[in-house]
Design brief:
By secondary structure, this protein is of the alpha/beta class. It has one domain: Rossmann fold (3-Layer(aba) Sandwich). Helix content is 36%, strand content 21%. The protein is built from ten helices and eight strands. It is globular, with a radius of gyration of 17 Å. GO terms for molecular function: hydrolase activity. This is Alpha/beta hydrolase. Keywords: Hydrolase, Signal.
Length: 287
């Protein structure tokens, strides 16, 4: 049965890589990674009607570090439910994990999705203790466009500041396959999401690196033809130059999709992205 599930999922992933499929298959794999969804559809930005889910380990005797995971989808697609596999994955690694939705293109343009992300950080700071999380140990994570969102929230202090959140609230970041240095925009999704902003330099995470940035892990696939690995290398170099602790992981031969799907239990061995990012965050945040 397990082989059948993996084969069916792999065929679908080759063509479209739907996150919802990963979450569905994830739930059918035998065994238990010790994670559960403890809150679903919690409104965190009432003016926008945005909601989030919270995942947590089944058993814990103390407040745990927190990961806010922002999903990818080129700023035009994605949902918190579709990324249940990521919530379950990080919760299984010992984190209380928040998966927030955010507004998407074409309904909005830059920087609306970052403003939504800042509201998710604010909600987490104010409420995560009720779900077993430590509000003083919050990290951001994400894949692709979600990694971009996490990077901008960690680096450009304006978004958290405007939401009434201190910059130091984000203690670390673990970002997968993200675009961080990609102007001029050569790809349609980037132009649609960010191209109308009159000051393009303000859309690029590399331009906001200072020594106050939190420690970061940047992971990318060496064969990523969706977001060039150069983005991770450029941001890592800029962080290192500013004296910020940074780890760069380049998984040779691995694609853009490979890093996302390896967060799910059926494909966990595709890359070590989950184990590497969890280990990094535990080193920074503690257990």
């Amino acid at each position: 049965m397990r082989k059948f599930i993996l084969a069916a999922a792999s065929l679908a992933l080759v063509s479209c890589s739907p996150p919802g499929l990963l979450s569905s298959v994830n739930s059918f794999v035998p065994g238990d990674n010790g994670a559960r969804r403890v809150a679903e559809g919690v409104v965190f930005a009432p003016g926008q009607g945005l909601k989030l889910d919270v995942w947590a380990p089944r058993r814990a005797d103390h407040k745990l570090p927190v990961v806010i995971f922002f999903y990818g989808g080129g700023w035009v697609a994605g949902s918190r439910g579709g990324y249940a596999f990521a919530g379950s994955g990080y919760a299984g690694q010992g984190f209380v994990t928040v998966i927030p939705d955010y507004r998407l293109v074409p309904g909005v343009r830059f920087p609306a999705f970052l403003e939504d992300g800042a509201q998710a950080v604010k909600w987490t700071r104010d409420n995560i203790a009720r779900f077993g999380g430590d509000p003083n140990r919050i990290a951001v994570a994400g894949h692709s466009a979600g990694a971009y969102n996490g990077a901008m929230l960690a680096l450009d202090r304006r978004y958290l500041q405007n939401a009434g959140v201190a910059r130091g609230t984000i203690k670390a970041a673990a970002l997968l396959s993200g675009p961080y240095d990609f102007y001029p925009f050569t790809e349609q999704r980037g132009r649609d999401a960010l191209g109308a902003w009159p000051r393009p330099a303000e859309t690029q995470p590399v331009n906001f690196v200072t020594r106050a940035a939190p420690p970061m892990l940047l992971a990318t696939g060496g064969a990523d033809d969706v977001v060039n690995p150069r983005n991770s290398r450029a941001l890592a170099a800029r962080l290192a130059g500013a004296g910020v602790p940074v780890e760069l992981k380049v998984y040779l031969g691995k694609s853009h999709v490979d890093l996302a799907k390896s967060l799910s239990r059926p494909f966990r061995t595709t890359t070590p992205a989950l184990n590497d990012s969890a280990a990094f965050l535990h080193r920074i945040l503690g257990n």
